[in-house]
Every structure is written in structure tokens, then in C-alpha cells.
Design a protein that fits this description.
Shape: elongated
Strand content: 5-15%
Structural class: alpha/beta
Radius of gyration: 24 Å
Length: 366
């Protein structure tokens, strides 16, 4: 009954500009088509979000197609996400209508159960959306073979600013795809490849592309399997020196180690726009690494978030230098410390954070 009421309201809602349909209970999911029928009567939508809506039935997909057609000249943002039962067949049914959204700027299709079989479909869709600035493929198992088809098309998306490739099933075989033969994305501002263990070999092929993305502000390399044993660290140094606007760098859950941090530190000191640096769980064990982080704190005056937890450098006199640098920092707001930092220094920092006149707001210790 509620679905029918909402549907009736939507049918009279020709001026609706933003519509979100998500987090539906099982009962509502069974009546999703009723809701979507009303939604198809909205003809001036600029933003449409549909998540967890049970998009595995052809009648439901048909209703979404109708909505897309009715808003093809106005829609700028589209999210169809967290519908694991949608799969390759569902995106194929929607593709012809997606290609008509010429004003679409953001497309979020994360976690829809897509596989490499959707590579050609997605490439065709991206090719026909000239205004795209943001693409999110997170939690779809696109894999190497799917990305091989998509990547050349992405290189033609000249307006692209945000790319989310988290957990899309890439591994060390990614290297033939993201190779130097592809030009960089001149406007790209954020690249996230979290949870894709491409390893040192994969990063060797990704690095030349990153060097051409001079506008990049956020680089997320969490859990990519980068080590100090291969060529990843020298290549990352070169990449960082090519990214003068970089504000966010996440290297957590990569076995970088003390050697890797030492290699990276001269380049990190040049990243003067950094506001977030995540070095959690990177295998730091030497007190010397505490000194390197202290030096970075003194150089990176724009830094707001520094994450170091999950490392064990052992207690040392250097802890005092680090904590002094934290208290002297002009903009640091959040700090995650490794469990090896001396308890008395942690206590002192927590007292310092309680002072309302300081920028430091949060100290986490584990």
C-alpha cells in the first residue's frame, strides 16, 4: 500500500529533480516495479539513485529503462548500485538507454555482480557519454579481460576526473592493460585501486600512466601488493614528483617496510599539498622510520590526517621527537599512532588534543 501511495505521488511529481530509492526491505522489493512505474513519470530528474532494489527481474529493468528515456536530456547523475542480482544481463538490457544520457556526468554502478562479460557493453556505454567526469566500478569482477576492453575507451573520456576501480578482480596480470601505450587522463583527479593485488610488476606498467595525470589529487593504492623488493618504490618516487597537486595518498596494507619508506621520503617531502597520508600496516619496524615520519611532519604543513597504526617500530627516544612535531604542527587534526609509541607520549598527546585552541582533535592508538 505504501508503494502505491509513493508511486501515485511520483506520477504527479513532474518537477522532481532528485530521487533516491534504496535500502528497501524485502516487502518493498517485491513491489519495486510499482515504485519504478511512478518514477518513470518524473521527467526532469537530474540525479537518480537506485540501490538494493532487487534489479534482477526484467519488468523492473524495463521500468528503469523507461525512466532513463524520459530523463535522457536532464539526467546528470546516476547510481545503480548494490544490486548483486542485476549481473551482466541487466546492464546489457539498460545499455541502449544509458547511451542516450548525453548530459550524464557521474555513473556509479558498483556492486552489481558484473563480470568481464560486461566489458564490451560498458565500453560502448562510456564511448557514448561525452560528459562523464566520474565512473565507479567498485566490487564488480571486471578483471583483466574486461578492463582490457574498457581502458582504450576510458582514454578517450577527456572530461574524466574520478575513477573508482576498488576490488574489481585485478591481479599481477593487469600489466598489459595499463601500459605506456595508453596516454594519461589529463583531467583525472582521483584514482582508487583499493584491493587489487597488482604487485610490483603491475605497478611498473601503471606508473607511466600516473606520471601523465598531472592534475591528480587523490591516489588510493591500498592493498595493491607494492613492496620495496621490486621497482615499485623508485617508480612511485617518480610518480609523486609528477603530481604537484596531490592531496591524498593511501599506501596502507602494502609491505613497503622501512626500506621503502626511506626511499619514498624525499619525494613525500615535496608533496606540500598533502592533507591525508595513510601508512597503516606497511611493515615499519625500525626506530629510524619514526625519525623519517617526524621529518615529514615538519615539512608537510598542510597535513590534516596522518595514519601510522598497525606498525611496530619499538619504543625509542625518537617517540618524543615525533610527539613534539605533532604538537608543533599547524594543521594536524587526526592522528593514528602505532602501538609501539611510548604510553606516556600517547597520554600527553591526548591531553594536548583536549585543548580547544589546538587543531588536533583525535588521537587513536593501536
Amino acid at each position: 500500500q505504501d508503494c502505491q501511495v509513493i508511486s501515485s505521488l511520483l506520477q504527479r511529481g513532474g518537477d522532481v529533480k532528485k530521487l533516491e530509492l534504496g535500502g528497501l526491505s524485502r516487502t518493498v522489493k517485491e513491489n519495486t516495479s510499482t515504485l519504478l512505474f511512478g518514477m518513470s513519470k518524473c521527467t526532469r530528474l537530474k540525479l537518480l539513485r537506485i540501490s538494493e532494489a532487487g534489479l534482477h527481474r526484467s519488468n523492473v529493468v524495463a521500468c528503469i529503462s523507461s525512466t532513463l528515456r524520459c530523463n535522457s536530456h536532464t539526467l546528470e547523475g546516476l547510481e545503480i548500485s548494490l544490486n548483486e542480482e542485476m549481473r551482466d544481463e541487466g546492464i546489457a538490457l539498460l545499455s541502449s538507454d544509458l547511451k542516450q544520457l548525453k548530459k550524464l556526468r557521474t555513473l556509479d554502478i558498483q556492486s552489481n555482480g558484473l563480470t568481464s562479460r560486461s566489458g564490451s557493453t560498458l565500453a560502448d556505454v562510456f564511448h557514448n557519454l561525452p560528459a562523464l567526469t566520474s565512473i565507479n566500478l567498485t566490487w564488480n569482477k571486471i578483471g583483466y579481460s574486461g578492463l582490457e576492453i574498457i581502458t582504450p575507451i576510458l582514454q578517450q573520456c577527456n572530461q574524466l576526473e574520478l575513477l573508482y576501480f576498488d576490488w574489481i578482480g585485478l591481479n599481477k596480470e593487469v600489466h598489459p592493460v595499463l601500459s605506456a601505450r595508453h596516454s594519461g587522463l589529463p583531467r583525472l583527479q582521483r584514482l582508487s585501486t583499493l584491493g587489487n593485488p597488482i604487485g610490483d610488476r603491475g605497478f611498473e606498467q601503471l606508473a607511466p600512466v600516473l606520471q601523465q595525470c598531472s592534475q591528480l589529487r587523490d591516489l588510493v593504492l591500498t592493498g595493491c601488493g607494492l613492496t620495496s623488493d621490486g621497482h615499485s618504490m623508485p617508480l612511485l618516487v617518480t610518480v609523486l614528483l609528477c603530481l604537484p597537486r596531490l592531496e591524498v595518498l593511501t599506501l596502507n596494507c602494502n609491505p613497503v617496510g622501512d626500506k621503502g619508506l626511506e626511499q619514498l621520503s624525499p619525494a613525500l617531502e615535496q608533496c606540500t599539498q598533502l592533507t591525508i597520508l595513510n601508512l597503516c600496516n606497511v611493515g615499519l619496524k625500525s626506530p629510524q622510520s619514526v625519525l623519517i615520519v617526524t621529518r615529514l611532519l615538519r615539512q608537510l604543513t598542510s597535513l590534516k590526517y596522518l595514519y601510522l597504526s598497525g606498525n611496530d617500530c619499538g619504543e625509542s627516544i625518537h617517540d618524543e621527537f615525533l610527539c613534539s612535531a605533532v604538537k608543533a604542527h599547524p594543521s594536524l587534526e587526526r592522528l593514528k599512532l602505532p602501538k609501539s609509541i611510548r604510553q606516556d607520549e600517547v597520554t600527553e598527546l591526548n591531553r594536548f588534543a583536549e585543548d580547544p585552541t589546538t587543531t588536533l582533535q583525535y588521537v587513536f592508538y593501536y
